[in-house]
Specification:
- With 417 residues, this protein is of the alpha+beta class.
- Helix content is 44%, strand content 12%.
- The strands form four sheets. It has a three-stranded antiparallel β-sheet. A three-stranded antiparallel β-sheet has the order 4-5-8.
- The longest helix is centred in the middle third of the chain and has 20 residues.
């Protein structure tokens, strides 16, 4: 946050590969932006960084309130909120830390500290209008506004309909029928074409770990948390399925049930089976994959795609209708491939773990528009699938965000991944 009247402009630095990268201050911490496209002038990079810095300076700091601390308050509203929040924690909800921030930053200033018995419909209309104005002022995104609204309406509904006598305290839902904040334009999800995936899978400079990770992520279309929790015993080659029974919850820092609370069996693609057999033979038991941390995994995916020559513009740059690729888009890639292949649509929904068919429909629409010239889905993996580097006497592995290259008995670390 800029202080003393000084306008926030950020800083532009030059990376080792010649690209420019902006650095802005967000909530008191320095945050690196995605590197700009190669060849961009420094003046343009500075302008873009200044725009991002100004936006970051307006963003209110999130209130990450520990659940225990909430219970120390004495007002009726805080006591009720503490009870409501702890009930959600006990029932395994993963958004409780966000709920606390939503309450203290956006909801409590309007609803006040009184009992939920006193909440009025007019207050919820005021919340919706306040969130709309914050979106228009670029203080929050429209998706954040709708997430905050979801917290508000859930609190209102539980105050009227909760099964717990400690939470249910009024006969009606004061938010029922109140229109929430406006929905903005959706940014289209990204996916890789089969030929782009094969470029990465067959490139000698991409670490074997990353080739395997990207392959399993696409061919099994599991969520990040499901991949992190996947164990060797979950892979049932005899029956041709991978059993998804748990997921790593990054908010609760523990294993929980998959999203939606439903276990599912994901069919193993025949072209993936050889790699799974290889992984099972190497690992034996325990986790099937070693995955980098959340921040490293997003940055490294982009790095290795570019190293492999997968440089399609919309994958790495924001456009009016799309955003740059994320690790989660590998899951979307696998689902898109199944839609392109014309698999039965309800089988796709079940195997992907979509609670609503409308989620699956988005992939079906994308597939119908891109099917021509798309390429063979779930192609056979390159014969060596990363072993070419070993055949040349070079053993590469991705460890803690670094690329370790062993040549002639000497370890060399190349950072910046």
């Amino acid at each position: 946050m800029a202080t003393g009247g000084r306008k926030a402009t950020g800083t532009v630095v030059t990376l080792a590969d010649g690209r420019l990268q902006g650095i802005v201050t967000l909530h008191g911490r320095r945050k690196r932006l995605p590197p700009f496209e190669k060849g961009m002038s420094k003046a343009m990079a500075e302008d873009k960084t200044a725009a991002k810095a100004a936006k970051a300076a307006k963003m209110p700091a999130p209130m990450m309130v520990p659940v225990a601390a909430v219970g120390d308050t004495e007002t009726p509203g805080e006591k009720w909120f503490s009870t409501w929040l702890n009930d959600r924690v006990e029932r395994g909800h993963s958004t409780t830390r966000n709920d606390a921030g939503h309450w203290h930053t956006y909801l409590k200033p309007i609803l006040g500290s009184g009992s939920p018995k006193a909440w009025q419909r007019a207050q919820f209309r005021e919340i919706a209008a306040s969130l709309d104005s914050k979106v228009q002022a670029d203080e929050i995104s429209w998706k954040t506004a709708r997430n905050i609204w979801a917290t508000a309406t859930k609190m209102a509904n539980d105050a009227a309909e909760s099964k717990s006598n400690k939470i249910r305290c009024r006969p009606d839902d004061p938010a029922q029928g109140v229109k929430g904040p406006d929905k903005g334009e959706e940014s289209g999800t990204q996916f890789l074409y089969p030929a782009e995936f094969l470029k990465l899978a067959d490139h000698p400079d991409v670490p074997l770990l990353w080739k395997r990770l990207v392959t399993v992520a696409i061919y099994s279309y599991l969520r990040d948390g499901e991949l992190r929790a996947l164990e060797c015993r979950d892979v049932d080659l005899e029956h041709g399925v991978t059993r998804v029974t748990k997921a790593w919850n990054r908010n609760l820092k523990c294993l929980t049930s998959p999203k939606g609370g439903r276990n599912r069996d994901v069919p193993i693609e025949p072209t993936l089976e050889p790699l799974l057999r290889e992984l099972l033979a190497e690992r034996g038991e325990g986790r099937l994959l070693d995955m980098p941390s959340g921040s490293n995994i997003a940055r490294a995916l982009v790095t290795w795609l570019k190293k492999a020559g997968v440089d399609r513009h919309e994958l790495h740059n924001e456009t009016p209708t799309t955003r740059p690729i994320r690790f989660h888009d590998l899951r979307g890639t696998g689902i898109t491939w199944r839609a392109v292949r014309n698999d039965p649509k309800f089988e796709i929904q079940i195997d992907a773990g979509h609670a609503q068919f409308s989620t699956t429909e988005a992939y079906l629409h994308l597939a119908s528009a891109r099917r021509r010239g798309f390429g063979e889905t779930f192609p056979t993996l390159p014969k060596e699938h990363g072993d070419r580097a070993i055949d040349q006497g070079i053993d590469r592995s991705f460890v803690s965000g670094r690329n370790r290259t062993r040549i002639g008995g000497e370890d060399r670390i190349r950072t910046g991944v």
